[in-house]
Amino acid sequence: MLATLFSAALQGIDAELVYVEVNSGETGDFKLVLVGLPDTAVKESSDRVLSALGNSGFRKPHARTTINLAPGDLRKEGPIYDLPIALGILTALGQLKADRLADFLIAGELGLSGATRPVRGALAMARLAKQLGKKGVLLPPASAKEAALVEGVEVYAVSSLDQAFRFLNGERTLPRETAARITSDNQADEHAGDFSEIKGQHALRRAVEVAVSGFHNLLIIGPPGSGKSMIAKRIPTIMPAPTLDESLEVLSIHSAAGQTLSGPAQFGKRPVRSPHHTISDVGLLGGGTIPGPGEISLAHHGVLFLDELPEFKRSALEVMRQPLEDGSVTISRSAGKVTLPCCFMLVAAMNPCECGYLGDPKHECRCNPTQIQRYRSRISGPLLDRIDIHIEAPGLSISELRSEQMSEGSAAVRERVRAARERQLARLKGSRATANARMNHAQIRKHCGIDSTLGDLMQQAMEQLSLSARAYDRILKVALTIADLAGAERIEAPHLLEAIQYRSLDRNLFY
Description:
With 511 residues, the chain is of the alpha/beta class. 38% of the residues lie in helices and 17% in strands.
């Protein structure tokens, strides 16, 4: 008897339909034959499925059984086909009615006892089921919580093979999984710290506020102990909460990578990724035999913090140049080509030299000019051009460290950032850009107009600092963000001067 069920295969962060065809009772000795371009984990499912069937009290096949995962040219990976294969075998043996199988997409890993375990890409499967007009999806409980965020599709959590069998056979009912509540406050994490804990560094605090308001990339340069990492780790506390659509995009990426944001408190929070400097090109950009998301995609709509920037491999840093411009990355492998979103805010920190004390009045720098040049040359000019704001973090004095006066807290800064973002959203309504940093050239010409006096000022700055044409556009975008923070309708001289100031360090320090 032939049985057909429906499952899915992940391609990047999207899902594609997979037909699970099971044909039992074929001539020959007992054997499970699995075809359809499966990887090792899929091939091993036959052993898990047979044990799960026996331990769940079901009759196992005694004749040759062929299992086909179609289409045959789409590579299948992971243990997500255990549950549909087991249900397909039960249907082919006449133990399970086939009436309701066509209504659902089914996925889940099976333990030897028949219990289900979570799978990657549940959100993508629910979106695919909705797109195909299916009634719903059957998934393990942890995965079902993700899938329930997709509206217009029924999601049922099945904790075991036996429970799935009885539900599809009409012997029992299951409650529909409900969507977890998405928190409206992005700052519920009490471990993130607060801006009030930062002593001194008023210029750095201002630069960070400007960067977050316009989603601009930021480079912090300063000696050890100046608070670079401390303030970078508190950047999420002043970021506005993501929209529902942004939250779903973030969850889709993490789900596809197997890094599920489990628990209601995690929904509605912007991701913060801080990879170690030993990370590989593939780990940062994404890839693998079947291309999957890397750190830049996992930081989508959030922050990618690279501490000790020159310590990262040059090749790993250079692969970020195109994604920083486009907000997406295309990965081509023999198994296929996928395009992954990666619209993130890059925050990088570094010392001014190898010993870290160049220009520090309290410590003597031990580096010679050759060492300093070699250290700085690890970061290319094209990469620096894509970082909108460069700011220096000088060492703190003893009096600043001893001060008991509390600085302005994250909540007050976040309100100003939120107001600036709302102005940008209203201005850019109807376009793909959601912040000033993501404006294209046509939008820059439309919204960043300056008069002849400010144009002369820009020309003088460009010539003196030897800035590139890309830096010209980025200065205008930063100036517009500063104007948004000030509540101004257009760019004025103080806004432009402050934006130019944020571009001066890359030429003074690196050339």
